[in-house]
Amino acid sequence: MSRHSPFVIVLSEGDRAELVRRAGSYSEPYAVVVRAKIVLLAADGLENVEIAARVGVCVDVVSKWRKRFCQNRIGGLADRKRVGRRRVFAASAVAEIKAMACEPPTCRGAPLSRWSSKELADQAVAESVVASVSASSVRRWPPDSRPHSRARFRRAFAHQHLCPRPMKTICPGRSPPAAVLHRRVYTKHRRPQGQSDR
Predict the structure, then answer these.
(1) CATH code of 42's domain
(2) Which among 8, 75, 89, 180 would be 20 to 30 A from 109, CA to CA?
């Protein structure tokens, strides 16, 4: 048996109008819509268990947003500022180091054929992009900044297009736009009937 929530919600006309707008919105983020529905159902007198079942969330989520609305009204439904470690490097510094990684080292006067994480970090410090950065920090940034991974992708892409599988071209229907367009279907190599796998 579920117990009643100690947070009873009574809505003013303005709050109800705003919550109804949010609950029916197609442009608001999904979380905002769910929170508005939770508060509206709570204001109608439903218990947390029933609200959770209707909205499709767990009971703890319903309890959390009911309590926040009771304490701070509409403002309580907004996301709070998240705690966590602050960014060590500015986005502009990270972008500049990524741009540096996309250039050959010879453009920067480095006698290398390609960058390693350590050499890229050292070059960023030498050019005063950052005061200090470790090789592991540079390595953790997305792989699109490392030219050797892009080269590996380019080789795989070229191989795929130089060695295509046999194809058949099918012309679907005879409607005017479809008469010009063709759809390609990849076929598997089929062994002629009567031949064994040996």
Answers:
(1) 1.10.10
(2) 89
